From TrEMBL, chains A, B:
Domain Saccharopine dehydrogenase NADP binding: from-to ranges: 5-146
Pfam families: Sacchrp_dh_C (PF16653), Sacchrp_dh_NADP (PF03435)
GO MF: ATP binding
Gene: lys1
Protein name (Swiss-Prot/TrEMBL): ATP-binding protein
InterPro entries registered for this protein in UniProt: NAD(P)-bd_dom_sf, Sacchrp_dh-like_C, Sacchrp_dh_NADP-bd
Length: 417, 417
């Protein structure tokens, strides 16, 4: 089966996904749709320039906040898969729009949470993905697949969880996603500047929301932001980084399919970034609801994001590596205690040279393309609202790591501790 | 002579100035003008409610960015004095508009600076007040007075400088304005919240601009922000606060009229506020030029200010005292070394009870009203662009401190160290 993909969003991740996909043969049509059609056109021009005779990519304009617009565009292009590559605030309209068009759906972050009204730092309210899982039965009954959280984190981290459960561990104490980097951005004069490598809107959302933790027998619960600080030693020269609990999809996904005693997500924010997020919260600049400023209405969080460099543009001024991975503790298949970090490191110099994409964006983008290829081959198949850990991890990890042109040439590692 | 005052701006300071003035008899007309006429009307209603038969206050709408609009309104009301009570970014239009109307002028902050293009943290560029002093000769030739910087700081601090030179010191080593407070703001649930007691726009301006210092033989020069940290012990229970150099008018005013070896201004920002200002700078949120956010144009600094509580509204939820003062070191009239802190402390509880105004705003507002009364009496007179230290300090300090109804009932203190 050759897929017909409608990709919504050609920001950093969408653009990189199109560039990665252009090297593969599993699809016959890839529609690059964006609210700003000039961005979509730029992405299409870039991928056409990468490969002689490339005619599979077309651009389109779309309002991602309108399920009807998504449905109409999917039907127009006979899309088999709608691939959501925009901020998660648009998840539900794209998710609903894909279903109405009879297309399968993929995203890299799940529907947004709402904190518990009385006890936000102890109990969960509406959880990440709740709105999507609420209609899982309908998706399954219709034979349609919504593969949610298939970026790098969530995504590859969840694949690692399934791999650890199937092949490395007899019993798992903790599935602990740990994310860290040693990325530095410089300005034109060579001075180090603050420039987040990922969407600032999303970073604020996940870091200032109450972090969620799962424990067997207790279920999901929340803590205060930046809880349980831990210095984690990342591989391949990145070294120790201070990590803290944040709200992340892995904690909502992994317990549904993988047996463990505890599931956590800690992000290597580092001291400076934690300080910045605390100040934004103190000043009320993390808020998403509009305020009136000299007669115009703006969301403070949108202003914070707009004042910073676009993460998609900082690649040329960035150096360093980023690491996504899963630290698993428990009892190995041999019955002895085991502590294993499964990880994927990407060097910014390599993704810039190969794809003109900065490493965090590229690392997010490669995973849904691998998943789409497995779905095209029929290696992965399913119906309902499923996380990456619902599928066999081995073909995914093999295809990701295999050298080009068979695979994606992006190896992952295992570090026994 | 009974004055006819056109006050531009009825934010926190303008509103408090009108309330303070309503107890005095030196004027026959006080026009409260604001871009938002409902704010002006609210102030007029408040002062009319304070005194039976009060008919001297009227409201008006004005665009402070238009010199022509200021001139027209001043002529319409036969204003003898235009009192500028808005953000200093509007200084030049009000200053020029007053002169064109043949009125005298008062402000509480001087025209804005521009940093040195190549060496911002070593050399001055355009200095605070430069644009105003550039036309001092014309004001003097026309017999008109622009009394600049007559709030509390600058203002009362400059009066203290003149007093120290005339009555306390034979020779002055340093005129060091030192400002600190122990103010705390609570939310409705009693939790401490971050809520600056003065215009955030202006606080960012003065704290992130390169601080200016003056030294005899060297003149004015700049340093990096937050330089020369010093823990200063404030009187009346406030205690020690960390103070750092900031850009402030006193450093530009005092050397023009008072003999000293060094002139500095240090602000008791405290650690948290310094950290917040550094983050705003890191994120580019201190910038005043507009950026595009989801199709609308806004200045990031305006957004920061709008996201915080209006300083004029936090009085009821605030406790503590604020202190403005001048630390003078040198040789006393008796030829012996002397270190004297001249200061003015205001308790928020008192200004709220007496004027429904928070203390920092009230402390700023009282000084121009005292000055206007001295000008009305003819005790203070002059022509040109003059700072408060160009006038005899004694009648000002006496009128400020004297009990009501003769004076303003707000004593100042001397602390020998």
């Amino acid at each position: 089966m050759f897929l017909r993909v409608l990709m919504i969003g050609s920001g950093g991740v969408g653009d990189a996904a199109a560039r990665i996909a252009s090297e593969r043969d599993f699809f016959e049509r890839w529609v690059v749709a964006d609210y700003d059609v000039t961005r979509a056109e730029r992405t299409v021009a870039a991928v056409v320039g990468r490969r002689a005779g490339e005619g599979r990519f077309v651009s389109a304009q779309v309002d991602a906040s309108s399920a009807e617009a998504v449905t109409q565009l999917a039907l127009e292009h006979s899309a088999t898969h709608v691939f959501n590559a925009v901020d998660p605030k648009f998840n539900m309209s794209i998710f609903d729009g894909a279903r109405a068009a009879g297309a399968d759906y993929l995203d890299m972050a799940m529907s947004l949470s709402q904190r518990h009204p009385e006890r936000p730092y102890e109990e969960v309210g509406v959880m990440l993905g709740d709105e999507q899982f609420a209609v899982a039965d309908e998706w399954e009954a219709e034979g349609r697949l919504a593969l949610v959280g298939i970026g790098v984190e969530p995504g590859l981290s969840d694949v690692f969880a399934r791999y650890a459960a199937d092949h490395l561990f007899e019993q798992i104490d903790e599935l602990g996603t740990r994310d860290g980097a040693n990325l530095v951005v410089h300005d034109d004069d060579g001075n180090e500047v603050f420039a987040p490598s990922f969407s600032m809107w999303t970073t604020i959302e996940e870091c200032l929301n109450p972090p969620v933790v799962w424990e067997k027998g207790r279920g999901w619960f929340t803590t205060a932001p930046f809880s349980e600080p831990e210095v984690f030693d990342f591989p391949e020269g990145i070294g120790p980084v201070e990590c803290v609990n944040v709200e992340h999809e892995e904690v909502l996904l992994m317990p549904r399919w993988v047996d463990a005693r505890r599931v956590t997500f800690k992000y290597g924010l580092g001291d400076e970034f934690i300080g910045i997020l605390k100040v934004l919260n103190t000043l009320g600049l993390d808020r998403t609801s509009p305020i009136t400023v000299k007669g115009v209405e703006v969301s403070p969080r949108d202003v914070v994001a707009a004042a910073l460099p676009d993460p998609a543009t900082i690649g040329p001024r960035m150096t360093g590596k980023t690491c996504a991975g899963l630290y698993v503790t428990g009892t190995g298949k041999d019955g002895r205690p085991r502590r294993t970090y499964l990880y994927h490191v990407v060097d910014n110099a390599e993704t810039m040279a190969g794809y003109d994409a900065q490493c965090v964006v590229w690392q997010t983008a490669v995973n849904p393309v691998v998943a789409l290829e497995l779905l095209a081959r029929g290696t992965w198949k399913g119906a309902g609202v499923l996380g990456p850990e619902a599928f066999d991890a081995v073909p995914f990890l093999d295809l990701l790591a295999a050298a080009k042109p068979e695979g994606y040439g992006s190896p992952w590692g295992i570090d026994e501790r």
